[in-house]
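Ticket 4471: requesting a sanity check on a complex prediction with heme D. Repro inputs:
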Amino acid sequence: MNMRGMLAACCLFLVSGALADVPVEKMYAEHCASCHGADRLGGVGPALLPENLARLRRPDAIKVIADGRPASQMAGFSDKLGKAEIEALTGFIYTRLPQMPVWGRNEILASHIRHVPAGSLPDKPVFSADPLNLFVVVELGDHHATLLDGDKLEPVHRFATRFALHGGPKFSPDGRFVYFASRDGWVSKFDIYNLKTVAEVRAGINTRNLAVSGDGKTVLVGNYLPHSLVLLDANDLSLLKVIPAVGADGKSSRVSAVYQAEPRGSFVAALKDTREVWEIAYGDKAFPIRRIVADDYLDDFFFDQDYKLLIGTARDSHKGQVIDLDTGKKVAELDLPGMPHLGSGITWEYRGRPVMATPNMKDGVVSVIDMQSWKTIKEIKTLGPGFFMRSHENTPYAWTDGFATGNPASNDTMTLIDKQTLEVAHILRPEPGKTAAHVEFSRDGKYALVSIWEMDGALVIYDTATLKEVKRIPMKKPSGKYNVYNKITRSAGTSH
Ligand code: DHE
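Returned C-alpha cells:
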C-alpha cells in the first residue's frame, strides 16, 4: 500500500471507531456498558449521548475517562486504556444514535401499573411502630429498601425496589406513602401503612429525581433522557402532563433536579443545559411555567427555610448564586471553593443569625455562610471531600461524611462540627477502613444512623448524646435513609 492508501485506511479506521484489533463498540461494552447501559441510555451512570453531553467539551470528556469524575462512581481508566483508546471511546460517545429512543406520553401510559386500586387499602398501619418515626433505608447493594422502627431500632419490613434508586424518596404530607425514583425512570408509590407497592410508572429513560407537591396531589419527575418533566397524579401515578424541557432560547435541556416549595404552592425545577429555573404552580391544573433566567447553570441547589431564596451553583464554578424566587433576580453571589454539594446543604441559627453549610465533593472543607450578608463565615477543614451532611434541631453537631473521592484518610470517617463554635468537635470511625456515608437522625434526634457503604455493609446507630454505638444492623450497601417525621416537617437539618 502506498502512503496515500495507508492514510486513507488509517482515517477509515478512526471514523469507524476501530482501534488496533479492538472495535470501539467492544471497548465500550467491556468498560462502560455495565454503568452507562449497553445502548448508552444510562444505568447507574448517566446516558452517554451527544444530546446529553452538550456541556462537556471533548478534552474534558477525555480527562474524565482517563482520571474519573469526582463525586461520582466514575473511576478513571488510564491504567487500563491507552490514550488512543480513550480518544476513540470519546468519539464514540459523541456519536449520535441512529435512532433516538422515544419516551413520551404513549410509552409512559403503556408502562403504568396499578398493583392495588387507589384508596382500597385500610387507613391504619399493620404494625405497632410509630409511623412518623420510621426510617426508609435504601439498600443499593441488592435494590431493596428496609423500613426501620426508629424507637426500637428494628426492621419492620424489607422489600424489593426498582433498579438503582437515586435521590431522596419523597413522602406524602401525612407520611403514609413514599415515592421512589430509579435512575432508569421508574417511579414507585409504596403504602407504608400496608407495606405494599401500590402503583408504578416509567416516567423516563434516565431520570434525575422526583418531588411530591405540598398538598400531596401531584408528583413531578425530572429527566435527563428524554429532556422532559413529567407530572403524575400522586393518587395512582397516572399521567397528567409531559412538559418538554426546552429553554426560552430554544435549547433542549436535561433537568438538573426538581423540588417542591410548599410555602409557595409550587414546584421548582432547574434546567441543566440552559441557564433557567422554572417555577410551576401545582394548584393550577394547567401547570403554568414561570421562567427565571439565571446568571449561570444550576447543577445543584437548595432553598432557605421559607423558600423565598434559591441557592445554587454550577458544578465547575467557584461562585454560588442566590436567586430571589419572588423577583426572579440574583440578590447575592457566594464564594464557594471546589465543588460544593448544595443539594446536601443544611441551615441552623448561629449567634442569632441563620447560616447555611455545605459539604464539598472536591475539597476537604465545609463552607459556613451567613444567610443575611451571604459572606463566608468559616471554611472548616475536614479530612477529605464529603458527600452528605445532616443535623437535627436536638443535636449540637452537624455530621458530615468524607467519602466523595474515596480518599483513604477520610473515607471511613464521620466528622462532627459544633454548630456554635464552628470547630470540628469529634471524628468517628464507624468501621475503620470501610466507607462511612450519609447520616440521618431519629425523629427526636436521639439516634444517628450512619451507613457502612459495602455490599456486606451495615447501619451503625449512634446515641447522639454519648456518641456511643448502640446497634449495628447488617445491610446490603445501605445508602440514604430518611426519617418520615424529619422529612415531612422539613427539618432544617435535612435536605428537603
Ligand atoms: Fe446523588 C441526592 C445528583 C452521585 C447518592 N443526588 C441527589 C440529588 C441530586 C443528586 C440532584 C437530590 C435529589 C433528591 O433528593 O430529590 N448525585 C447527583 C449527581 O449529579 C451525582 C454527583 C452524579 C450522578 O451520578 O448523577 C450524584 N449520588 C451520587 C452517587 O454516586 C451516590 C453516592 C450513589 C448513588 O446512588 O448513585 C448518590 N444522591 C445520593 C443520595 C441522595 C442523592 C443517597 C439523597 C440524599 C438525601 O439525604 O436526601
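Notes from triage: The two ends are 66 Å apart (CA to CA). Leaving this open until the requester confirms.
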